[in-house]
Write a structure and sequence with these properties.
10 helices, alpha/beta, 14 strands, binds phosphoenolpyruvate, elongated, about 350 residues, eight-stranded parallel β-barrel, binds manganese (II) ion
Length: about 350
């Protein structure tokens, strides 16, 4: 439940409500808006005598929160959250573009992709070092070596960096080298990993599970936040449906639904959802129109030779065209991103 205080309630009144709740063994979450403060109650409510709460000074009303996720709930935190990743922010007003290869393949490959995506407007470099592949015989990633290349590329370009983690060992390594960790679709309900990510101290990008409902997804986010890490960003990356024309089905309606249910930023991944470079641009534009705070897009210097997810990867030229085309959509949505039209990447461009 939440306790909505009267506009401009005295600090003393807020403090006495908080003490009453905490003295009964529950914890509180404060959301101080410009005029109204909301006190969220987390824990077993049966322990709390609530009848007299309404008579506390400056209490306006008590609203039950029926959802099992509390800290991720918009009722607890009515203003949308902005989350810092390295030197950039994900949230209202900006369009955060995360771009890069599915997998880090070499230092040279990553460096040239990093320069190209930065030039076209990405603010965060993505690159997988631990790859959860369907087949055990597929490329599994460079692991810590890949993370080191991410750090070098991030430092050289000034881009923030994100990498997927699949176990505690990967989290321990990621903390040393990157700015944000990603929990992939296959691990969205790996509750031990979610708790470990919550204790990592890094912001977390939580991708939607292949067959997860929005409610299950928000409960997964709650696991991370409940460990004391409020810096969670949700990524809609397509769900399994009966349709086989695309790899998955990008659930665009999840974006406005999430905006209603949670204060956490929401981004969309048109690459993994469609599985084909041909559909990335239209779905990216649609996601911006639906209210996404950002996009995750796979980009490769030579998609035909990529060690993973080549068919959905954009060439530099296609990525550049896409970000140019996105600009008016972002402007209409009240969001912006920065292009750096400086020097062209010196990397050999192929497959365009
Ligand atoms: C990825 O981002 O490379 C990835 C494997 O994504 P997902 O977990 O959405 O399949
Ligand atoms: Mn991929």
């Amino acid at each position: 439940m939440i306790i909505v205080m009267k506009p401009n309630a005295a600090q003393q009144s807020i403090d006495s409500v908080v003490s009453y709740i905490e003295n009964n063994g529950l914890s509180t979450h404060l959301s101080a808006g410009e005029e109204v403060t909301i006190i969220g109650i987390v824990g077993d409510k049966t322990k709390l005598p609530t009848d007299n709460l309404i008579s506390f000074k400056d209490v306006d009303r008590i609203v039950p929160v029926t959802e099992t996720y509390k800290l991720a709930n918009r009722k607890f935190h009515p203003d949308p959250s902005s989350i810092q990743v390295g030197n950039t922010w994900i949230g209202p007003g900006s369009m955060s573009i995360m771009a890069g290869p599915c997998a880090v393949e070499s230092e040279e490959q990553l460096m040239c992709i990093a320069r190209a995506v930065k030039k076209s407007g990405a603010s965060i470099l993505r690159g997988g070092a631990y790859k959860p592949r369907t087949s055990p015989y597929s490329f599994q990633g460079l692991e810590e070596e890949g993370l080191r290349y991410m750090q070098t590329a991030g430092r050289e370009t000034g881009l923030a960096t994100i990498c997927e983690v699949v176990c505690q060992e990967a989290i321990d390594a990621a903390v040393k080298y990157v700015d944000m960790i990603q929990i992939g679709a296959r691990n969205m309900q790996n509750f031990i990993l979610l708790k470990e990510a919550g204790r990592s101290g890094l912001p977390v990008l939580l991708k939607r599970g292949l067959c997860a409902t929005i409610d299950e997804w928000l409960n997964a986010a709650e696991y991370i936040i409940a460990e004391g890490n409020p810096n969670v960003v949700l990524c809609e990356r397509g769900i399994r449906t009966f349709e086989t024309a695309t790899r998955n089905t990008l659930d665009l309606s999840a974006i406005p639904v999430l905006k209603e249910k949670t204060h956490l930023p929401v981004i969309a991944d048109p690459s993994h959802s469609t599985g084909s470079y041909k559909y990335v641009a239209p779905m990216a534009k649609a996601a911006v129109a639906c209210g996404a705070d950002g996009l995750m897009i796979e980009v490769h210097n030579n998609p035909a030779c990529a060690l993973s997810d080549g068919p959905q990867s954009l060439t530099f030229q296609k990525f550049d065209r896409l970000t140019r085309e996105l600009e008016p959509f972002c402007a209409l949505a009240g969001r912006s991103f920065e292009r750096f039209d400086g020097q062209a990447s010196d990397c050999h461009r192929t497959g365009e």
